[in-house]
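G., before I forget:
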Amino acid sequence: MIAYFTYFQVARSEQFINNPYNTRLDSFAKRIIRGDIVSDDGTLLATTKTDADGNETREYPQGKKYAHVVGYAENGKAGLESSYNFQLLRSHSFILERVVNEIEGKKNQGDTLVTTLNNDLQQAAYEALGDRKGAVVVLEPNSGKILAMVSKPDFDPNTIVSNWDAILANDDQNSVLLNRASQGLYPPGSTFKLVTALEYIREHPKAYKNYSYECSGSITADNYTLHCFGNSVHGEVDLKKSMAKSCNSSFANIGLSLDLKSYLDTCEDLLFNKSLPTEFASSKSRFSLQPDAGDSAVMATAIGQGETLVSPLHMALIVSAIQNDGVLMKPYLVQRVENSDGNEVECYEPSAYGRLMTESEAKVLRGMMKAVVTEGTASALASEKYTAAGKTGSAEFGTNKGDSHAWFVGYASAKGSSPIAIAVIVEGAGSGSSVGVPIAKTVFDTYFK
Amino acid sequence: MVTIITEVSKYLMMILFACYTYECFSVLQKSSSPDRQKHILRRQQCFMFLIHLDAYLVIFAVKQELQVLAFFVVQELLIWAIQLIYRFLYKKASRLVTNNLCMLLIISFIILTRLSEEKAIRQFTFAVIGTLVMLLVPFFIRHIHFLHKLPYLYAVVGIALLVLVAVAGKTDYGAKLSFTFGSVSLQPSEFIKILFVFFVAAMFYHAIDFRQVVITTVLAAAHVLVLVISKDLGSASIFFITYLVMLYVATKNPGYLGLGAAAGSLAAVIAYKLFSHVKVRVVAWKDPLSVIDNQGYQICQSLFAIGTGGWFGLGLFGGMPDKIPVADEDFVFAAISEELGGVFAICVILVCASCYLMFLNIAMQIHNQFYKLIALGLGTVYGFQVFLTIGGVIKFIPSTGVTLPLVSYGGSSLLSTLIIFAVIQGLYIIREDEVSDEKKNNRKGSRRRKRAAADHRQENAKA
């Protein structure tokens, strides 16, 4: 029992301490000035100013840019302000200084959160998304560090209290407060072909190379006809070319050949229907195709339509596992906690979540994703400074034929710097290659300059 | 300034209590001489006093009320009264048990005063009454020799009272537990635990043949069944486990143990399927955060408290233990852990373990099978109850809603635990009687032998 108590204190307690229901922390604020939040390069993201009368205001010098990821600390809490509330309200300042402050009745300065966020990338992604609704997530596949996380529409955390009613008034359509990057759920569209391809490779570990299909622009089964994007006719395609050209007919054809039980297992290996390993709020992605599903549902699901829903963060995690030889690193936002003098209090090291696929499966998928850039729908990403790979998607939604969310998921690497993975979604903006790819390009160009 | 006092005291009390706890075990070393033991036990009393004093200074610093200090003085008087009674009236009682009893009482007073002064005063009143009872119990145990002759009386009284509660009792938190007389409410199951142990011990003292085992099992099962019907599953499981342990030790038959364990598991599964409030507790145990708004609220608050308190605690009045529902009773351990710290809380577990060890110790030493079984039974009642309550509070097991003996608020719980401790002290005294009887017998025996030898020589000489 003592052992369990110790285990709880060491391993599990933070999950409970930072729970928003734990109102104990509010009492800390009487003795501690809430700590700062800074980016990886030291840009101040959140700080508390005390005026001459001792009134405190929480300020966010970067305004709307970090609205969702950093969050807010009044009218409830969100983002890092919520999940690291406990750390922000502790002080590890020099002990004598603290004693002196106590005697003088002054508050102590809380500890500083040093995030993994990269101000340049956040800025680039924020601007590239512009006024459109959507989200961008950028992370380092080999560490799990999240470098940028943007969600739009956004809000100004500095004025959250005064604008609260206005924000909530038309929230039904906009969901301004929702962090779309980790909590938004979208149909994955063609980006899901990566998952379908992985399942096909698993079922045919050698023979997948011999796959061939004659695309005539559409495929019909069980009285259901499915067209290729823009009604293109791709002719004879193998698996790689099907991916590069994002051939719907070919992938629907693959879908019809799959063992659906095993398809479901593969999706769950990739964390569909499961909680993502994050310490901040994130939504569970959904894959619900059952082994007894009809042909039309199978075809739609294989190309990322159907009932499947996924968050941008989740897609970013899948591609980063592909980039990282199949191993998923746990994504994280805070790399260390410092006291007010800049001395380290706590350090968060990268840690592996586990293997999502074998090394060779990851390698095959990388080959296909490279082909998407070299000969397919993301050719705009070809660059001399870095090697990019990825998958575009145009996810249809609603009842209007042709309304689609623009997706891009992928990664880029270059000698001398660690690779980065990205997921971009722009709501209702059209095709992935015309809208999603340019945003990724801006981010890659900023990172590998 | 107050914060500094709280902060410093927090560490000071932790260190003092750690020292106290260490000595609970170091005193048991075989190599330590009686003088050294006496010395250690006296030092424990110093630690105890300092912790008590320090805690009340903090409470005084925060509340700035003189009556806090007065309350402290009265408490110290009570503690000294207990110590002196046992020092002079019952010299042969275990002083370590007395010390632990006082220490746990002090912790109870500290945390209850912090939570609710009114309740602390009530608890103190019960402690005074309990002390008077404790004064008499060892005497009765030692001088009344027909205790083992009344097994059926114990069983009939026990079951009758339990049935009465089940029919006419007041419902608290979904279980029928108590009667209320004016401002005093009585929880009979706390006392029936003791009767139950006496009943089983008396039965097995007289015989352990199959017929006796069957009769005893049927009557014991009746106790447990009535408790289950009253939905007091915590007590039901304590009765059950106690019976199982006593049965095994009395008969030395592992078959009974296996049979009992199987029956217990089966009963647990049936209870889970049958009773919604059992299901609720299991759900709340598995993933409390998912049901935080209703069933999981209490356990979540408890874990918030323990987690936020960390190893060193938030200091007295530094946390919010009043957020935990029934923090003064079933969840008192969470309140202690939050404000006095995880290290302090672990020491509480160890002191309880030390008490349990002393209960088993006397069970091993005493020769009379009746007293042996009583010590063992009461030890199991105590040990298992500590396990249930602390395990439930820290989410090690589903919570069962039992109190932490001596520490939790509640007159019935406190009185019954004081009686248990007093019985154990009585057994320590009886054990000393046994020892001196043996010595006397030995001496007589050796004198007789010498005389025989001398006679023999004389006869030889005559021849």
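DSSP finds 16 helices and three strands in chain B. The two ends of chain B are 96 Å apart (CA to CA).

More on Monday.
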